[in-house]
Amino acid sequence: MQKYQQLLKENNITQSMSRKGNCLDNSVMENFFGHLKSELLYLQKFESMEHFVKELEDYINYYNNKRIKCKLKGLSPVEYRIQSLSVA
């Protein structure tokens, strides 16, 4: 564990500091990676690393700009943020 913490320090990365059993700081990324696995990784095989990177970039664009969410009033995440900012 000390080697891991040293590597983080050398790269100016702050380790998560939540209490044991508190997953709130991870929940957003855990949710994203769950979607990524089920909507991209498990659905296809990649011919090369370049192919994977291209598909990953396309998926992230889809996830942020085109994916409609009921919780976001039928808007994509970017559309919802733009709407929220214009109201504020």
Automatic annotation (TrEMBL):
Q: What is this protein called?
A: Transposase
Which one of the record's GO molecular function terms can you name?
nucleic acid binding
| Gene3D superfamilies to which the protein is assigned, alphabetical | Ribonuclease H-like superfamily/Ribonuclease H (3.30.420.10)
Alphabetized SUPFAM superfamilies for the sequence? Ribonuclease H-like
Q: Which GO terms describe its biological process?
A: DNA integration
- Source organism: Clostridium polyendosporum
Q: PANTHER family, per this entry? A: TRANSPOSASE INSF FOR INSERTION SEQUENCE IS3B-RELATED (PTHR46889), TRANSPOSASE INSO FOR INSERTION SEQUENCE ELEMENT IS911B-RELATED (PTHR46889:SF4)
The Integrase catalytic domain is annotated at: 1-85
Source organism superkingdom: Bacteria
Identify the taxonomic lineage of the organism of origin: Bacteria, Bacillati, Bacillota, Clostridia, Eubacteriales
